[in-house]
Amino acid sequence: MLLSLIQKSKSIMGIGENAIPASPSSPSTVPPLPNDLQSSSDKSPSSMEAHGTTQSEHKEFQELIYDYIRSIKDPEKPATLEDLHVVYEEGVQVKGVTADNVKIVRIEFNPTVPHCSLATLIGLCIRVQLERTVAHTNPFKLDIYIKKGTHNTEEEINKQINDKERIAAAMENPNLRKIVEDCIQDDD
Q1: The MIP18 family-like domain covers which part of the protein (predicted)?
Q2: CATH T-level fold of 54-184
Q3: d(Cα 6, Cα 117) in Å, to the nearest integer?
């Protein structure tokens, strides 16, 4: 049953044989951030303060984000994403702040194996968890990526887990939604 659900979720998310082909203009690599949104470590303290944030606020926000994603349960194994080293502190970065004071957050995760069939589901769990717990009090733009070189179809999956329409469609599937809910449920 889990296998058929995975195949159905891949179909909904557009991954695999039935995937919608990328347009020729689509970039095949992770897109760079515009110059005004470069890493906060590249910005001077006065530049960050002009946007109303400081380096310590960025660090606190990174820690907050990590605290929420580290306890997400793996869909297959009885362990958290942190326990399996799928998510790690260095993988959460605040890349900058927009003119509207919206933080740009990039999360990189490392699937357990290069052919992990649940990488898309893990990315979906990360996104849903953060949208429910952080977004309402701290506006941010979230980009989620698989660590470069750690998955056979990382480019396809990166596109899917950052596509709002496909995420919305996936969350309309009651079976997939239940799996996400189970993974992000806090047992504490």
Answers
A1: 65-131
A2: GMP Synthetase; Chain A, domain 3 (3.30.300)
A3: 7
